């Protein structure tokens, strides 16, 4: 499909720079096949059914942005995928000033050797010493806010909490699974009281999620891989929910992409551990999920393509036009939608 089909105009003032407070006070646009409702996230329990299950991503964002020096050149690095105990793939700013085998000093006693440049401009960074990379990042790194926020303000102490979900446990993401940012203990208690269950899986979100689609046709776009895991017990729970007539509702496109990576053609969700580069566009047949809660996405992005695959492109273009006209807040710190095809 032509990427232009997934374009739309978004006024800059619709981009949220801070999350709603409290988190569950954000707005919620509910889309069913023939209905559109303007609600709040606190209304979510009433939009689901007893026996449904929400699936959250329990990845934890690491301080994956680094600023360093190579000679007299300033170098920026954003880690996006672990390749070994001391080695990460990273997107590099000012990459033309680096050659294979050169070291970058990130301060605080943290340095890494760059190697194996790829066509997308990324390098492998091999960090010096025996300390775990996560400890090095605590000294030298900062929270990797999305570019559409970072271009308007610097990350600060508030983001250390704001940009983590209440489920964050497994360190490794360089971007938050932002749909889950809306959840609070109070909302989870209300969902439990309504008979709506929840489960967690892990997908370490990479910085590739923010990269624009530069191809003119979706067939020419290649996704970056991300590592994920669904353990056997969680897979069994999800299958049992569907077998009993309940719905599996992914919270966030990351949860959805991992479930769909793990589901077989008969809709059975299998245990999964490894890389996925699944790219979902209109025409895709969903096998493992029955709905999605997600934020509002960038024009021409793979995530807008995904929601268009779930609900239909015309439906999502109309829904986004409605959201823009009615003051919804977009992107990572913005409002949410509940998509029930």
From TrEMBL:
Pathway: tRNA modification; tRNA-queuosine biosynthesis. It is found in: Cytoplasm. Keywords: Cytoplasm, Isomerase, Queuosine biosynthesis, S-adenosyl-L-methionine, Transferase. Pfam families: Queuosine_synth. Monomer. Transfers and isomerizes the ribose moiety from AdoMet to the 7-aminomethyl group of 7-deazaguanine (preQ1-tRNA) to give epoxyqueuosine (oQ-tRNA). The keyword Repeat does not apply. Gene3D superfamilies: QueA-like. InterPro entries: QueA, QueA_dom1, QueA_dom2, QueA_sf. One of its GO terms (biological process) is tRNA queuosine(34) biosynthetic process. GO terms for molecular function: S-adenosylmethionine:tRNA ribosyltransferase-isomerase activity. It comes from Sphingomonas panacis. Belongs to the QueA family. Its EC number is 2.4.99.17. PANTHER family: S-ADENOSYLMETHIONINE:TRNA RIBOSYLTRANSFERASE-ISOMERASE. It catalyses: 7-aminomethyl-7-carbaguanosine(34) in tRNA + S-adenosyl-L-methionine = epoxyqueuosine(34) in tRNA + adenine + L-methionine + 2 H(+). One of its GO terms (cellular component) is cytoplasm. The gene is queA. This is S-adenosylmethionine:tRNA ribosyltransferase-isomerase.
């Amino acid at each position: 499909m032509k990427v232009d089909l997934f374009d739309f105009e978004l006024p800059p003032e619709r981009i949220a720079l801070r999350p709603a407070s409290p988190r569950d006070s954000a707005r919620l646009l509910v889309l069913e096949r023939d209905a559109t409702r303007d609600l709040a996230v606190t209304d979510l329990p009433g939009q689901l059914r007893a026996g449904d299950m929400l699936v959250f991503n329990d990845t934890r964002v690491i301080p994956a942005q680094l600023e360093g020096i190579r000679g007299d050149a300033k170098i920026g690095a954003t880690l996006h995928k672990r390749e070994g105990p001391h080695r990460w793939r990273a997107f590099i700013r000012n990459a033309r000033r680096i050659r294979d085998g050169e070291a970058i000093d990130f301060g605080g006693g943290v340095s890494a050797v760059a190697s194996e440049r790829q066509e997308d401009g990324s390098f492998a960074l091999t960090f010096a010493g025996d300390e775990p990379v996560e400890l090095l990042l605590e000294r030298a790194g900062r929270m990797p806010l999305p570019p559409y926020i970072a271009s308007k303000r610097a990350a600060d102490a508030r983001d250390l909490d704001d940009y983590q979900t209440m489920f964050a446990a497994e360190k490794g993401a360089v971007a938050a699974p932002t749909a889950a940012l809306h959840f609070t203990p109070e909302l989870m208690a209300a969902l439990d009281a309504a008979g709506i269950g929840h489960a967690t899986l892990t997908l370490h979100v990479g910085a590739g999620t923010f990269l624009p689609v530069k191809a003119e046709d979706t067939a020419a776009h290649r996704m970056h891989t991300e590592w994920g895991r669904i353990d056997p017990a969680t897979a069994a729970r999800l299958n049992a929910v569907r077998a009993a007539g309940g719905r599996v509702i992914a919270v966030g496109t990351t949860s959805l992409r991992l479930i769909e990576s793990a589901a077989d053609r008969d809709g059975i969700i299998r245990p999964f551990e490894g890389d996925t580069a699944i790219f979902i566009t209109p025409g895709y047949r969903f096998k493992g999920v029955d709905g999605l809660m997600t934020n509002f996405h960038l024009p021409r992005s793979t995530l807008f393509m995904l929601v268009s695959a779930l609900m239909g492109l015309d439906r999502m273009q109309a829904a986004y036009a409605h959201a823009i006209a009615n003051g919804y807040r977009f992107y990572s710190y913005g409002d949410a939608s509940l998509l029930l095809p």
